[in-house]
Amino acid sequence: MGNNDSSLYSPEAERAVIGAILLDHAALPVVLDIVSPADFDAMANRQILEAIISLQDRGQPPDLILLAEELQARGHLEGVGGPAYLSELLDRTPSAANVTYYARIVREKSITRGIEGAGRRIIHKANNLNGDGIESLLAFAQREITTATSAGAGSSSMEIRDMMKQVFREIEAQRERGDTIPGLPTGFTTLDALTGGLKSGLLYVVAGRPGTGKTALALNIARTVAGAGGFVYFFSLEMPWKELSYRLLSAESKIDGHRLSRGRMGEGEQLRCVHATDALAKLPLMIDDTGGLQIDRLMGRARRTKAERGISLIVVDYVQLVRPSQRWGTREAEVAEVSRSLKVLAKELNVPVLVCAQLNRAVESRTDKTPTLSDLRESGAIEQDADVIAFISRPGDDGRVELTIAKHRQGPTGKIVLTFDAKLTRFAA
Predict the structure, then answer these.
(1) Do 313 and 352 form a contact (C-beta atoms < 8 A)?
(2) CATH code at 205?
(3) Active-site residue numbers?
């Protein structure tokens, strides 16, 4: 550590957090609700926490013996100070009761360091505009501050030879699987054929005007992933859980949602409702309908759930309703922080994140109502951060829905047609 400024660093807090986890393994999800390894300044502490998380992901308790073995396997044991340092961390922590307090100190110091670094880069940019206008400087400053205050994304580096080995293994595995897609199936073969399914670490955006079926499509995809055994965390900032539950039940039972909510069912439909209810109750699906959820809280809940039970897919409905961690000068900057943070979350947890987004009204006033990337409401940052952007539109009242892949970092763009049964809130390819 090259700086002893207590406003930027707290070695004591970092050691207390690691020691608390070693003392009480149940402290790990509490810690991960607040910080990530990237928030730790001391490389040794960062590497220890990464090893603990790796053990947790494999269902192994992070005791001293297993932790030392994991660090040894990673080539980090001697670098962190060996078994003696691990024992010291445990011995110097009398209790795990104050772990939340110390974790918040670690996070605050991390943010402070990030802001200090961003400030230096902004000043350098301001002194070297080279003809760039003030708008360029403001945009640069917003990006720097957003990145600095986003939740820790974890830090990883890998030499090219190791990257190529891993990529080659994935290619070989995919070749052996044949025609199966590399990502999670969405339930729509034409969509999967175009995108390869939902891939880990990528940010997917489904954008459209109100009433076009964004939530219904996201819910249908969540049902498919959960039905295949993948745990889905669905953040619903617009609709309450009960409304989503009725939608799921209507689609599952194939009973008109309007009649279902009023209990108007025939004898055969009642039996279908019972079977559908039982099938849905067994799904690994969690719905969080906290209104006005802040992005840092959303990320913390996702981290904790990932540590406790694993996550296959995160859904956020919808991005413009997620509150930023703090107030910015413009609405665009606030949405930019949320968008960037969701991209960071996808990479950090190594899961696909599916986000619904609103389009602005301009698309309705044009003769050609085909959405474009510039129609994304309140932020061009969504266009920049997303790996895949799909526009959903309903050109008529015949149940036909057009899904246009307008951006695809890893593959082709194009248009597919789905059918939507509004009474059942159910899509079909």
Answers:
(1) yes
(2) 3.40.50.300
(3) 238
